[in-house]
Specification:
Layout: H1 21-28, E1 32-36, E2 39-42, H2 44-63, E3 67-68, E4 74-76, H3 77-83, H4 85-88, E5 94-98, E6 101-105, H5 110-120, E7 129-138, E8 153-163, H6 166-186, E9 191-196, E10 206-212, E11 218-222, E12 229-231, E13 251-265, H7 267-272, E14 275-277, E15 283-285, E16 287-294, H8 295-305, E17 307-308, E18 311-312, E19 323-327, H9 334-346, E20 351-354, H10 360-370, E21 374-378, E22 386-391, E23 397-401, H11 402-410
Parallel strand pairs: 3-7, 19-20, 19-21
Antiparallel strand pairs: 1-2, 4-6, 5-6, 7-8, 8-16, 9-10, 10-13, 11-12, 11-13, 13-16, 14-15, 17-18, 21-22, 22-23
Helix pairs in contact: 1-8, 2-6, 2-8
Length: 411
């Protein structure tokens, strides 16, 4: 991709109405554009990052046996009335009337998923059902701040599982929890599984996945040894208490929630008459589980964790490109940079080529702000068939053969 042709460029101006690091850097780097509080457009660079996150999630969800679908975002009032959440979740939902009918924009999809199940699944041998999708969620967030960490409109992966027993639900619940830890590791985040309240979703305790960060709006108490973590809103212990397994004192820290999982049991299926026939032909209510990861929130969390005073530092797995190719303008070098770009792309390397006629200093500053893991410089000084290799996490530069660079980046 030639940077001169990329829609959305870097900006030196710090957004005055943003306080969160993720918002400042994503806006300045050309990854997102702000429409209004809590609502952002994903620019080409930002969408590439989100698509990388999405694919990692997809692979791990598929590995649990789940199937991908896509459900509507516009919901009739009638389906929310079946569970009573048209009234109980009114504060968080966007509800409106068109003609003589009332609708809501999706803030979650439990009701719609259960409606699918009761239409298409009838007997015990068709269970468990494991379905997920990637879609937009709308929530009437009263404090739309912290950039893409807290929005009124955002991208989310939500997985739903429906089972014939609590035991089977519990088993899959833990399987998904393990898959979530793997997802977050793969995108560069170290997440803790934290016991928490159910919020507007359920009165039962649930589990969140939290990433330690001073930018977080949640507080958790946890054991650094990894055997205990609770959100302070439900914490049964205090900071400083000694871990029961001898790992030392419990710590209280701020954290960013990047995922959550719920066990609803039969509460919603009973209300919506989502039943199945068991081996003896007796009809019984199904058991529901729900599991969410915010894609745009995950992107924001990555930026909060991986940045310095110069800009973003993307983990390789979610970086919009593998390498940032820079041409330092010198007489006679243009064929060399085109050769470097062609060989890199033909070798399977995703390259952002800054082909603009601007100073080397401006190009290098943009490289740091955008945060692609490797910067490659082509110039007369470096020499034909070679590139200057610099990693975003280091100030060290080395000269390598172009073929070596292709091999390292494509492996």
């Amino acid at each position: 991709m030639r940077y001169s042709q990329l829609f959305g460029k870097t900006s030196r101006q710090v957004p005055k109405d943003e306080t969160a690091v993720n918002a400042k850097l994503l806006l300045r780097g050309g990854f997102v554009d702000k429409l209004m509080a809590g609502s952002y457009s994903l620019m080409p660079l930002g969408l590439r990052v989100v698509k990388k996150i999405e694919q990692i999630i997809r692979e791990e969800m598929n590995a649990t046996g789940a199937q991908e679908i896509l459900m509507p975002l516009l919901h009739p009032k009638s389906i929310w009335n079946e569970t009573g959440r048209w009234e109980t979740a009114r504060e968080v939902m966007y509800q409106f009337k068109k003609g003589d009918r009332e609708y809501a924009l999706s803030f979650t999809h439990e009701e719609i998923l259960l409606d699918l199940v009761r239409k298409h699944v009838q007997t015990y041998h068709e269970f468990p059902v494991k379905l997920y999708h990637f879609s937009t969620k709308f929530r009437n967030e009263p404090r739309a701040k912290s950039g893409v960490l807290r929005g009124r409109e955002f991208l989310m992966k939500d997985l739903y599982s429906v089972h014939t027993s609590q035991e089977d639900l519990d088993k899959y619940y833990e399987e998904v929890a393990d898959a979530y830890i793997t997802v977050f590791e793969r995108i560069g985040l170290k997440a803790l599984k934290v016991e928490a309240a159910g919020g507007v979703f359920t009165k039962e305790h649930t589990h969140e996945f939290q990433v330690l960060s001073e930018a977080g709006e949640d507080e958790i108490i946890y054991c650094p040894g990894g055997d205990f973590a609770q959100n302070t809103e439900i914490a049964t212990v205090k900071e400083g208490k000694q871990c029961d397994l001898g790992h030392g004192p419990l710590l209280k820290v701020k954290a960013i929630e990047v995922g959550n999982i719920f066990r609803f049991g039969t509460v919603y299926s009973e209300k919506m008459n989502v039943m199945f026939a068991d081996r003896g032909g007796t009809r019984k209510p199904a058991f529901l589980g729900s599991y969410g990861i915010g894609l745009t929130r995950a992107m924001g969390a990555i930026v909060e964790i991986y940045h310095d005073e110069r800009g973003i530092i993307w983990p390789a797995a979610v970086s919009p490109f593998d390498a940032h190719l820079v041409h330092v303008e010198d007489s006679g070098t243009e064929p060399w940079v085109k050769e470097a770009y062609d060989k890199l792309t033909k070798g399977g390397v995703e390259v952002l080529w800054d082909d603009r006629q601007v100073s080397a200093g401006e190009k290098f500053a943009d490289c740091d702000l955008i945060g692609i893991p490797v910067r490659l410089v082509v110039s007369k000084k470096v020499g034909e068939g070679k590139v200057e290799w610099k990693e975003r996490t280091s100030d060290k530069t080395t000269i390598v053969d172009l073929a070596t660079a292709v091999k390292k980046l494509s492996s």
